[in-house]
């Protein structure tokens, strides 16, 4: 009990100087220390707007009144109504006050009290106390894009929302590039220019800057030479005036808009570019009933099909049912209601290498196709928790039968997904009654067994073992599960485990012909494996014996050679060495 009490107290202890995040908001007229160990006190005189506060290196604009405690004025911007702008963390006048200003919101007025030693604006008399009445008028956010001072971004007008473009997205920007002396060396047309972020534009680091911006954001950029055109500069051409070597460039830029681009399949073979965002947060999932309109084209713009366009009827289909080409199916499942998009589909996800006759033209083999599409409506498939028990069993039974048809057609991947979904609808969640539980259990086991059969066809032997084990955890004597798990173990070379499963299955069904044949197969495979191992060891032993024999022969040869050398070097004059000198 004592230990528990100590742990609870430790968890509640504050570290010295720690700011309690759960502290209530400061009230107008209330004075607080900035932090436990800080010598600076802050008294809130007027609450600010919003929740954002400036950061160090931002350019802040303030009004201030600086006095001693006795009221002696040391400085003020109020006299001439001329606010001052400085960089947070880099001002001598406001040294020591930066920690206070970073806690303020726009329009906030606060009175800061601090020792003179903390202020850089008056002689360091440690007995003096200085007060600053500060109004935070505004600030410009400054971002060190490359973290080395090479590209600095000053946000002059904030954008809307929090979404920022990604590497694949298409952006519309306006910009003007100038030298330090103001000479304009490049600029966009009035309507701006569109490009994909990943393709780059104008300056090598511009895409990195754009990925920090939000829609409608305007900024001033400073590019140091190493992130511009370096020591070589740039000759005039391609919309540029000449740029001297080692030039610092100033860029005014606006991110007008961007179109999100989604790599639907992860292999860049189905790409969706969103032209108009849809409504809400939900997308059409697998198994949803969708209604779409589109114009389908070849890469050269040749239209081969229209649905819901020019008096044609929209297309209605169920996703993940192979009712349309795979790429369209996959992309539509990611769309929201009202969303408009351009979907580019590689031939592998379209019509493949076959020629297809569509309504308007023939689609040649290997064609990439493009769909200009709108999601009109969809009805998502209900999740298991949205159904009662009877409905869950009905849906699971239907999906199982759909899986059976797919299995018979050789579509094992899709069949496996059907069985998996069916099992989810009758999972053991404690909601079924006794009679319902028996039926749910039977369906669940059947789906796991069928899923294991699909895994064997797809060479997913680990998956087969997992599903069969799930069955055996419920029915330890299930012959089909033991048989299929043994098949998977054989394929992975685990003959001992396969033999154990076969023996267990034969105890339940000793006359089963398939089990007996599988037992013979395992016996033969184990015998072949033993022979192979024996041969391997024999070769290893023979190699070792041969190596030892060679080493012995080499040793004997060396010994003989040394003996010969010894004989030839022996003196012939009774052991006396005659000095030739």
From TrEMBL:
TM region(s), chain numbering: none
Keyword Cell membrane attributed: no
Residue stretches of each TPR repeat: 479-512
EC number: 5.2.1.8
InterPro entries noted in UniProt: FKBP4/5/8-like, PPIase_dom_sf, PPIase_FKBP_dom, TPR-like_helical_dom_sf, TPR_rpt
Pfam families tied to this protein: FKBP_C (PF00254), TPR_8 (PF13181)
Domain of life: Eukaryota
Gene3D superfamilies given in the database record: 3.10.50.40, Tetratricopeptide repeat domain (1.25.40.10)
Compositionally biased tracts (Basic and acidic residues): 552-562
Stretches for region Disordered: 1-35, 552-581
Keyword Transcription among record annotations: no
Catalytic activity: [protein]-peptidylproline (omega=180) = [protein]-peptidylproline (omega=0)
Compositionally skewed regions (Acidic residues) per UniProt: 1-18
Domain called PPIase FKBP-type: residue spans: 57-140, 168-259, 287-379
Top-level enzyme category: isomerase
Entry's Gene Ontology molecular function annotations: peptidyl-prolyl cis-trans isomerase activity
PROSITE patterns documented for this protein: FKBP_PPIASE, TPR
Alphabetic keyword roster: Isomerase, Repeat, Rotamase, TPR repeat
Family: Belongs to the FKBP-type PPIase family.
Name assigned to this protein: peptidylprolyl isomerase
Taxonomic source organism: Vicia faba
């Amino acid at each position: 009990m004592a230990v528990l009490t100590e742990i609870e107290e430790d968890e509640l202890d504050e570290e010295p100087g720690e700011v309690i995040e759960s502290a209530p908001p400061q009230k107008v007229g209330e004075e607080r220390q900035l932090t436990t160990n800080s010598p600076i006190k802050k008294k809130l005189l007027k609450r600010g707007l919003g929740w954002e506060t400036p950061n160090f290196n931002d350019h802040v604009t303030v009004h201030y009144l600086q006095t001693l405690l006795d009221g002696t004025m040391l400085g003020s911007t109020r006299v001439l109504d001329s606010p001052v702008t400085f960089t947070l963390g880099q001002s001598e006048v406001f040294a020591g006050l930066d920690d206070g200003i970073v806690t303020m919101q726009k329009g906030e007025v606060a009175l800061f009290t601090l020792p003179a030693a903390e202020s850089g604006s008056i002689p360091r008399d440690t007995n003096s106390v200085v007060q600053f009445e500060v109004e935070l008028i505004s600030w410009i956010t400054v971002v060190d894009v490359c973290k080395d001072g090479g590209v600095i971004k000053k946000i002059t007008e904030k954008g809307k929302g929090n979404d920022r473009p990604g590497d694949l997205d298409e952006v519309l920007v306006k910009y003007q590039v100038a030298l330090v002396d103001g000479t304009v060396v490049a600029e966009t047309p009035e309507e701006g220019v569109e490009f994909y972020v990943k393709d780059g534009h104008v300056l090598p680091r511009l895409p990195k800057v754009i990925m920090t911006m939000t829609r409608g954001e305007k900024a001033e950029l400073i590019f140091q030479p190493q992130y511009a055109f370096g020591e070589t500069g740039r000759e005039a051409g391609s919309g540029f005036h000449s740029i001297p070597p080692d030039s610092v460039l100033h860029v005014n830029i606006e991110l007008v808009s961007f179109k999100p681009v989604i790599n639907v399949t992860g292999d860049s073979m189905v790409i969706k570019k969103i032209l108009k965002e849809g409504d809400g947060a939900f997308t059409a999932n697998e198994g949803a009933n969708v209604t779409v309109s589109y114009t389908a084209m070849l890469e050269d713009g040749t239209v081969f099909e229209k649905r819901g366009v020019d008096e044609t009827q929209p297309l209605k289909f169920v996703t993940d049912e192979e009712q349309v080409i795979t790429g369209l199916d996959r992309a539509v499942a990611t769309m929201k209601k009202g969303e408009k998009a351009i979907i580019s589909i590689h031939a592998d996800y379209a019509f493949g290498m076959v020629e297809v006759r569509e309504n308007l033209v023939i689609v040649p083999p290997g064609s990439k196709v493009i769909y200009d599409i709108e999601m009109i409506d969809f009805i998502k498939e209900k999740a298991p928790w949205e159904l009662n028990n009877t409905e869950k069993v009905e849906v699971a039974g239907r999906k199982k039968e759909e899986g059976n048809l797919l299995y018979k057609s050789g579509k094992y991947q899709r069949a496996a997904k059907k069985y998996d979904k069916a099992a989810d609808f009758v999972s053991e969640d404690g909601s079924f009654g006794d009679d319902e539980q028996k039926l749910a259990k039977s369906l669940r086991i059947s789906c796991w067994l069928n899923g294991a059969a699909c895994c064997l066809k797809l060479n997913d032997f680990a998956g087969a073992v997992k599903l069969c084990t799930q069955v055996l955890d419920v029915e330890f004597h299930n012959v089909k599960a033991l048989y299929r798990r043994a098949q998977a173990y054989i394929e992975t070379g685990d003959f001992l485990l396969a033999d154990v499963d076969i023996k267990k299955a034969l105890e339940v069904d000793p006359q089963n012909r398939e089990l007996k044949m599988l037992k013979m197969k395992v016996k033969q495979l184990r015998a072949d494996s033993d022979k192979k191992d024996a041969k391997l060891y024999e070769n290893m032993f023979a190699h070792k014996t041969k190596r030892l024999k060679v080493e012995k022969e080499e040793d004997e040869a060396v010994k003989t050679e040394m003996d010969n050398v010894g004989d030839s070097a022996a003196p012939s004059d009774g052991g006396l060495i005659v000095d030739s000198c």
